[in-house]
Amino acid sequence: MYRPYIKPVAEASPDVKVPKSRRSKFVLLVCRILGRIYLFFFLGVVRIVLRKGEHIAGAYKRALAGDSRCIIAFRHPNGGEPQLLMWFILFKLRAMARKFRIRFAKQPHVSFVYGYEVVRWGGVIARWVMPGLGSLPVHHAKVDSDGMARIFKAISEGPYPLAIAPEGQVSYTTEAVPRLEQGTVRIGFKAADRLYREGKTCPVEILPVSIHFRYGRMGQWSLNKLLRKIEKYTGFGGLRDKAPFSERLRRARDRILEHNEKRYRLSPQGSADGNQDSASGNRGSFDERIDAIMDAALDRAEKILGIKTKGNDLMERVYHIRQICWDRMIIPGITSFKGRSLMERAVADLNCGEAWYASRHMELVDFCWYFRIPIPEETAPLYIKLEYVQNLWDFANRSMGGAYSNRVFNVHPKRVLIQVAPVINLSARLKEYHENKKEAIKAVMEDLKNSFLDCIQEAAEYQIWGGLCPASQKPLPSDGINSSRAV
């Protein structure tokens, strides 16, 4: 019997109440006890290695002593980065810093900034853990003066660093920096300006952090398993040919592309063979065709919702649609449907159903924007091939109505490399900020992007699996998780 890949949502829910952010000792104790288990069984992590640890240790020493204010700008390509960073900072950073002969004035902590939608789809556990760890919620696509006030208060008063993902959301690619939003830098400059006007001399610093996954022999087995799953879903499951790895990827990718073109009644663009790729440097037919699909999908979603196109930026339209969809599926300001008429409830359910179907188009665009990357060759490193195959599965998943929550295909075991870059001192650039805010923000954004690119380059040159590294490099004295104990 046929069953839909994703079950539609057609019943509106009352608003989700998010508890006030606080630092709960009980939540911290539970996270300390269950943290290793979560990282291993849910994320597949058996070891964490920190490189350039002196940067994060120094930044924390200054912040916890009240000599600075720190914003941790972390990359967010996979989804598990906040959990990894939170666990490492809370329970491993202090011991690591001692190896650099650095002692903190207080126990390290960090406040993560997250979107309200996270606790909406994250469930009861997320609504309990995140506020209990002092994380700060904020609306991404609409005015949220209360949320911003909490963020500025946390930076101004300190002493704990604030963690923000400058990419704004999961970016699906570790080895490139496709886009950065200005929010992190704008918040940092405004906080630095406030402290300056209040006569406080402590600088506001941005600490760039990049997280990378690496895999052992089991990674190849997971790759083959996932690729066979993709071929099954796209109609190639019965083939037993020995096509090259890149050809298998291209074949499945193009089949998914064709299904989306039929869905939106589009004609293939570009070359007749449809096999050009952006790997050569020219924006080939795949890029043109996926751009046409994204435009059609956003147009379809906006028509379903009955809204006008907001702005020319594609991701701005995605955020706008996402916010409206969430507000129609989980209705803000309504704590219960008791006392409301049956007709009012029925209309809310109809709006919810329309929003759910509109969000299927939005979710496709949200992923496709980042998927315009070349197909890896057989000789590419395993982590690059695995990331692409994971994304290829997500392309199929979104095309069938899925979302990020259906993307997960954990690879066990994996090792994590946390690469840290030197801090960017925003207070030292206040003069430029006062003279020309736009140019000052642009300059810091460029420096932040270059810091991430440097982290990517350094991580690519470091072999974490098997304890090996290039002869010119020595691993820093930090081992967040010992594989034998984690197992």
Write the layout of secondary structure elements.
Layout lengths: L12 E2 L10 H19 L1 E7 L1 H12 L4 E6 L6 H11 L1 H7 L11 E5 H17 L3 E3 L6 H13 L4 E3 L18 H15 L6 E12 L1 H18 L10 H19 L21 H21 L8 H16 E2 L10 H27 L13 H18 L14 E7 L3 E2 L4 H6 L1 H24 L22 H4 L1
Parallel strand pairs: 1-8, 2-9, 3-6, 3-7, 4-5, 4-6
Antiparallel strand pairs: 7-9, 7-10
Could you tell me the mean pLDDT? 87
Low-confidence segments: 270-284, 466-487
Bulk shape = globular
- Output the structural class: alpha/beta
CATH fold call of the largest domain:
Glycerol-3-phosphate (1)-acyltransferase
CATH arch. level architecture of the largest domain: 3-Layer(aba) Sandwich
CATH superfamily of the largest domain: Glycerol-3-phosphate (1)-acyltransferase
How many strands in all?
10
**Radius of gyration, taken over Cα atoms and rounded to an integer in Å:** 23 Å
N-C termini distance: 40 Å
Q: Would you give an account of this structure?
A:
The protein has 487 residues and is α/β, with parallel strands linked by helices. It folds into two domains: 17-216 and 413-486, Glycerol-3-phosphate (1)-acyltransferase, CATH 3.40.1130.10; 226-406, no CATH class. Helix content is 51%, strand content 10%. The protein is built from 16 helices and ten strands. The chain has helices spanning 25-43, 53-64, 81-91, 93-99, 116-132, 145-157, 183-197, 217-234, 245-263, 285-305, 314-329, 342-368, 382-399, 430-435, 437-460, 483-486; strands at residues 13-14, 45-51, 69-74, 111-115, 136-138, 162-164, 204-215, 330-331, 414-420, 424-425. The strands form two sheets. Strands 2, 3, 4, 5, 6, 7, 9 and 10 form an eight-stranded mixed β-sheet that branches. The chain has a two-stranded parallel ribbon with strand order 1-8. It is globular and about 65 Å long. It starts with 12 loop residues before the first strand and ends with a helix. The relative contact order is 0.18. The model is unreliable at 270-284 and 466-487 (pLDDT under 50).
